[in-house]
Amino acid sequence: MDKKFVIDTEENKAYMNSLSMELLEFGKKFPSPSGASYYLGDDGTPWEDRPRETWITSRMAHVYSMGAMMGVPFAKELAEKAIEGLLTELHDDENEGWYAGVNSDGSILPNKQCYAHAFVILAASSGVLAEVEGAKDLLSNALKIYDEKFWDDNEGLSVDTYSTDFKTLDSYRGLNANMHTVEAFLAAADALGVEEYRERAGRIIDRVIGWAKDNSFRIPEHFTSSWEADLECNKEKPDDQFKPYGATPGHGIEWSRLITQWAMSTYKNDKTAAGKYIEAAKSLYNRAIEDAWNADGAPGICYTTDWEGKPVVHDRMHWTLAEAINTSSVLYRVTGDTKFADDYAMFLEYLEDKVHDKVNGSWFHQLDQSNNLLDTVWPGKSDVYHAFQATVIPYSRVDVSIATAIRDKYL
What 3-state DSSP class applies to 157? Predict the structure, then answer.
């Protein structure tokens, strides 16, 4: 095994840092004149004919805020530009909140998405830590709108989608938005010291673990308005970009990391209480890897499986690999089990062999089951959020959000 794939070696630290810097360089062209993020193409060139979306802009604000705290010269200016876009073009001044996005002709993308609003909170939290102009006001506004519109305190979960004017709430409920809500709430709690958001994250996590246990640790993704699992949702369109049919192993892996972070931050002095959640996190991770890694004779993690763990969509998405790198490293840090260190090395070897684009930079966003480039779900390379986080989380504290860990390490 090449030492550059082995955690805690100097070679691996250098390798991960080189990937970080390459990704920050790759994404530099994202801002439109207003600051809203263009969708990036295969070589980082903006695809100006595509919508400028709130979730992508927020991700880029988050990433370049971290880059600024790491001392990357051009990063703060780019973070400021993205925050500007969230405060201006993407913000709905009439109805409050954030549009899903803005089309190339200036028209808006309809609906108000919990998913996008969670990312605004994440972006603003990171911006506050990096002292990005406008981030404090953005975070205050984002939390206010989220608390009023998306957080259902009776359920301890978030609703999903409103009409653009916030007058009509869709009946769909989903865990993808709730997963990124956990990420956002933990970031806000760390940035502001407001523990209510950490407690809310825990309420979501308790519900998710319960559903996972009932389904052999394959997490249901889609629900009715009364939070009844809809296990057959999109069976006729199994590779839907945001609502795929069946279980999504990558989300099981991502939940595993977030649960671990929450447990380690909530139960700093109670190893027994934290341990119960770490065991659930390990079960989610192990189920996902068992079901989806190398499940069809080729390396890579299948996008989705059915409820028995059989692959449905065999494509490999870059974000799933990024989360596998993150979570294997975090579980290794927390448990000391070398199985997770071995997995981390295995994932990095696969990254270097199949997913890292050594010609144009960044990571290929979608490969087929034979690891050939595919663009049916994720053409181009929209943003650098997942990949960048995978280069910094392995060497960061496990009990705080990644931007807080970056601040504590570099500032």
Answer: strand
Tokens of 304: 């989705």
Whether the model clears a pTM of 0.70, i.e. scores above it, the answer is yes
The residue ranking higher by pLDDT, 250 or 378, is 250
Cα 325 from Cα 172, distance rounded (Å): 31
Residues 6+ apart with CB under 8 A from 143: 121, 188
Interval 110-146: pLDDT, tens = 999 999 999 999 999 999 999 999 999 999 999 999 9
State the CB neighbour count (10 A cutoff) for residue 145.
21
Please give the average per-residue pLDDT across 189-207, as a whole number.
Answer: 98
The residues that are catalytic are 251, 386
Q: Kindly state the tokens that stand for 120.
A: 């605004």
Indicate the SS3 state at residue 369: coil
Residue 307: Cβ-neighbour burial (10 angstroms; 0-12, 13-18, 19+): middle
211 burial type by CB count under 10 A (0-12 exposed, 13-18 middle, 19+ buried): middle
Task: Please give the C-alpha separations between residue 384 and each of 73, 158, 379, in angstroms, as whole numbers.
Answer: 18, 26, 14
**In this structure, what token pair is assigned to residue 28?**
């530099």
